[in-house]
Amino acid sequence: MEPPSTNPLRLLYQDDALLAVHKPAGLLVHRSPIDKHETEFALQYARALNGGSHVYPVHRLDRPTSGVLVFARDPETARVLGLAMMAGQVGKTYQAVVRGWPPAGGDIDHPLREEPTDRRLKGQEQPLREARTRYRTLATTELAVAIEKYPTSRYALVELYPATGRKHQLRRHMKHIHHPIIGDANHGRGRHNRYFAERFGEGRLMLAATRLEFRHPHTQAPVVIEAEPEPSFRRVLSIFQP
What we know:
By secondary structure, the chain is α+β, with helices and mostly antiparallel strands.
């Protein structure tokens, strides 16, 4: 299927080997057995930016997560950069709005069980795998809104640096330290999610990939790709303004 003329991806970086874009929240990276009815994917839009030629996903972002997404323009580049990803040689930075006020910074070292996509395996206990995330708190706010048992509600803007790449790692780790990400339907708090959806006219996961750092797979030159969060994310950040 040919994508519509309006491409939702924003080109961030391109050379002979790589294509980096900003993916909006709500767009799947590629076809998924869980979302068989979907017909639009970041992969097809990236191919349109590549002159119609094939591109190869190097990593993925969950559907509700927005931000920096990198494709390779040939299979060998995908292989080399994919190995660097698995070896932890790619620095990833995310921003998230969370419930409560976390400490100024910290390290979350909390193993996670696999979350199988095959429904037939969901009743079976999966093995624990190492999972580590570093974070720092960028801003905090307290709103005069009673959502749970307190007369006010506290929120924070945090920066997250995953050292491993487990499925839904950032969401699960922030829940683990009792500061779930706003808009997370599976690991968050429904009343807080509803408040933000009603206040800002739409509900979204408040998680954005803002920076990727790595060595170019062919030249070994340092590559830094950055993107500020999209407007739907930035509107929510107005709660941190004095």
